[in-house]
Amino acid sequence: ARIVDAGSTDDDGVVEAALRPRRLADFPGQPKVRDQLGLVLEAARRRGSPPDHVLLSGPPGLGKTTLAMIVAAELEQPIRVTSGPAIQHAGDLASVLSSLTEGEVLFFDEIHRMSRPAEEMLYLAMEDFRVDVIVGKGPGATAIPLELPPFTVVGATTRAGLLPAPLRDRFGFTGHLDFYDDADLEKILARSAGLLEVESDGDALAEIARRSRGTPRVANRLLRRVRDWAQVHGTGRVGLDAAHRALALFDVDEIGLDRLDRAVLDALCRRFGGGPVGLSTLAVSVGEETDTVETVAEPYLVRQGYIVRSPRGRLATPAAWQHLDLSPPAGAQT
Ligand code: ADP
Q1: Distance (Å) of CA 260 to CA 101, 217, 251, 290, 293
Q2: Using CA atoms, how far apart are residues 127 and 179, in angstroms rounded to an integer?
Q3: Burial 178-192 (b: 16+ CB within 10 A, else e)
Q4: d(CA 81, ligand 1 centre) in Å
Q5: Is there a contact between 178 and 30 (Cβ–Cβ < 8 Å)?
Q6: Which Gene Ontology terms of cellular component type are present (predicted)?
Q7: In the chain, at which end, N or C, are there fewer CB atoms within 10 A of the end residue's CB?
Q8: 143/180: higher pLDDT
Q9: How far is residue 151's CA from residue 126's CA, in Å, rounded to a whole number?
Q10: Rounded distance from Cα 320 to ligand 1 centre (Å)
Q11: Measuring CA to CA, how many Å separate 144 from each of 134, 135, 327?
């Protein structure tokens, strides 16, 4: 597992739960989504009825699960957690739906990964608060409609485009989460440092924020490694020196690139003169699977403007040459 991976890991699960903000007012960043969601929830609270179903979309580690829990807390309702991959058969979903209590929040992580039949059952349930339970098999099977109490689905997806339109349309409110700026990440880090009961300096938190790839999950993980370093080799305080040394130890550079990201950039510039070079050739030259390079390293490099995907292959941009302290050779295509 990479230290800069925005996806969850088991080890993170427990610590992450402790660092989650519990209420909307404690949730730094994403001002648009926060205000919109705040309005939707407050109106529902005043009406005394469940709000529209909520869809949260955006890359991993930006706070979708956290916001789902906040929705339940703000509505003072229990939350049931499930995920697309966990629901493979319509029957799995029927049993979850039929056990919901009135007003309960059903959090559906990775909702785009649900099976088709389950999807159809879900959108009918979201619209009419009803499921058809199939009794029996073969020609004698009959569908018995079962009324459900009103409930709220909070769906999370990294790929809103993959949701079929009928399902997407059942969500009355969609919030799009975007990468955080450094100032918001610093606020998150200051709060996390408090919860972890470590003293910290502002410049150290700013340094960690800069290397966190716009992602709170990464920021919190880097903070924990800097804390470790400070407790073992330093005074226990998260200061700038501890941040520099710990992040150097874990190979996270000034802009949050790790060993693999840099190997890809380095190969692209030094070995292939800045490209264009095919993805699989690039992957072989850094000794990785094509898929790993494409899904793990490349998205951030592309987003930050170090690599461009062209029909003829990958190209290094001037920023890539600059980051490696190299000058592009005459004739390099950038
Ligand atoms: P996602 O579901 O989008 O992958 P999570 O909600 O699980 O992301 O967030 C990952 C980690 O980042 C959690 O530990 C959470 O506390 C933290 N986090 C995410 N967004 C924020 C935020 N706005 N403020 C504070 N912590 C956050």
Answers
A1: 47, 19, 10, 12, 8
A2: 32
A3: ebbebebbbebbebb
A4: 16
A5: yes
A6: cytoplasm; Holliday junction resolvase complex
A7: N
A8: 180
A9: 8
A10: 30
A11: 6, 7, 71
Q: Any residues with CB less than 8 A from the CB of 142 and at least 6 apart, and which? A: 134, 135, 136
The atom number, within ligand 1, closest to the CA of 156 reads: 2
In a 3-state reduction of DSSP, which class is residue 88? coil
Closest CA to 70 of 108, 107, 29, 15: 107
**Which one-letter DSSP state was computed for residue 325?**
T
Burial class of residue 223, CB neighbours in 10 A (0-12, 13-18, 19+): buried
Query: Is 158 a catalytic site residue?
Result: yes
Cα-to-centroid distance, 84 and ligand 1 (Å): 19
The mean pLDDT value for 151-176 works out to: 92
d(CA 47, CA 138) in angstroms, rounded, equals: 45
The Cα angle at residue 213 between residues 218 and 36, in degrees rounded to 5: 85
Count helices and strands (H / E) in the chain. Answer: 15, 9
- Contact criterion met (CB below 8 Å) for 226 and 238: yes
Distance CA 288, CA 309 (A): 18
Q: How many CB atoms lie within 10 A of CB 45?
A: 13
Amino acid occupying residue 237: R
Is the C-beta atom of 214 inside 6 A of ligand 1?
no
User: Token pair for residue 42?
Assistant: 């407050």
* Contact present, 314 and 308 (Cβ < 8 Å): yes
**Tens digit of pLDDT for each residue in 253-271?**
999 998 899 999 999 999 9
Concatenated DSSP letters for 192-217? HHHHTT--B-HHHHHHHHHTSTT-HH
Report how far apart, in Å, the C-alpha atoms of 78 and of each of 64, 151, 155, 175 are: 17, 11, 16, 21
Six token digits for residue 165: 């339109």
Report which ligand 1 atom has the smallest distance to the Cα of 180. Answer: 23
